[in-house]
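Q: What does the assembly look like in three dimensions?
Context provided by user:
Components: two
Sequences:
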Amino acid sequence: MTGVGPENPFAAGRRLSPCVKAWDRSDSSQLRSSARIKPTAQAVGQIGKKASPIGAKDLFSNATILIMLAVTLLFSVSCNRRTTDTIFPASNEVAGWVKTGDIRTFEATDLWKYIDGEAERYLKAGVQRVFTADYRFQNTVDVVVDIYMMGSAEGARKIFDSEPAGDAKSVQLGDGARLYSQSLVFRKGLYLVRIYQESAEPAQGLLELGRAVEQKVSR
Amino acid sequence: MRWRGRTSRRDFLQNCLTGAVILRASSKVPLLAAPEQGTAAGKSRVVIARDATLRGIGATVDSGRILSLLDRCIQALFNFDNPTEPWKRLVRPGNKVGLKVNALGGRGLSSNLQLVEAICERLREAGIRASDIVIWDRDTDELEHSGFHVSTGGNRVQCFGTDRVGYEDELVTYGDVGSRLSKILTERCDVLINVPVLKDHDGAGITAALKNMYGVIHNPNKYHPNGCNPYVADVNMLPEIRRKMRLTICDATTASYEGGPGYKPQYAWKNNALIVSQDPVALDYTGWQIIERKRAEKGLKTLEAEDRAPRYIATAADAQHRLGTNDPKKIAVVEV
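A: Here is the predicted structure of the complete assembly.
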């Protein structure tokens, strides 16, 4: 890296890394205040020239496109809701476990907002999105359930195998599982599931909750 | 401010509201500004304080013990024999003080609530108004999830994320970094106290003082390639950050040696320690060694062997950055 002082951050001829080029491109539009963008007279004139009366055919065509878009959007929302609703056990579906918050979903592109720099290795393994929900066991122990949906079972295996087993107990669950004193990690098909306690109380019922999630993602 | 899920030891909220004891610092007392990086003749001082009984018989950090641990650190760092005086030299009444915490790891691995409460208590005793203290990170929901109680008004310690106020419109740049800064930093802080957590970091190697500044900018996701190098160092060179940074109090009460920066209980350990320094590079270097020792104890490869040694630490110490020193011969680690 060639360093330059703060007074001259982008010295002439300085090669920017691909990363910087990325922010330069993607963020410049965000930085541009709408108040600063004033259309030139020429541009206004061009807009005027392009404008033409809208016929009935155009209206029909536009309406059709809008309806198709709306249907697609509704279908997508419906599918997503169905997915999240069906892969997490409902409250008391497993004895003692209550779901305490909404399910949150992070798409691959936003994964960094949830797990910061760890997102990179999931992206390399082909993560599609992650679903996360909080549970409480017998009103005492809080846990988080993270369900990573990968692009393939190979992606889930890659993440699972990359992590040291440490003092895990091997348990029969999904395609591979590790049970620790305060967490459970397993993979099943496209899914990699982490269930972990946020507090330090002795863990109970993690495996039962895990088995319920495994059944859900197997469907 | 109130703290979710517990009753404050001394009813901290009440103290904040009533302004119990405010000791006015003399404006003639010189401030303990961040050292002139790279030019100081002496060694960079890094203080590590441990308390094996920090949690008493339970799992939660004891408020009284963490305050005492903090006092030991600060007194040792600045060579004072009472706990309040160094704070009076760090801040002045009327200063707006930001505590940049790390709330990414949820309740398991975020800046400890009791520690933050202890820092606020000392700041209040140094004459800082409760409402002039802001506890912050990038996202309010994350703060809440980590157990902080959001507070955005009144005569209380403030606590919220940048999502509530946004980022500056203007891009600031240094080296390979171009970012917009949190308005909490630019508008709500004269003094920045960094309160990170000591963690393994999948990309960067480790995260502690320097990496925690990724939570100050709008586009940290752009700066994770190449082990976050040189980006971490460059972010810390942004003038607003460098000028306001006064002290790092690294929460190593619970730390992680693998699988970070997210919380994975199987790779976290109760270290029951604080690491404090005015040199963030020396602190990060020291934190790295602590993590390496734990990895060795657990039979894991070194970060170097895994090709994820935190190279940004050396960059932060180089001639272009001079944010501190990573030379162990120039670091005085003091264990108290």
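Follow-up: The longest strand of chain B covers residues 245-256.
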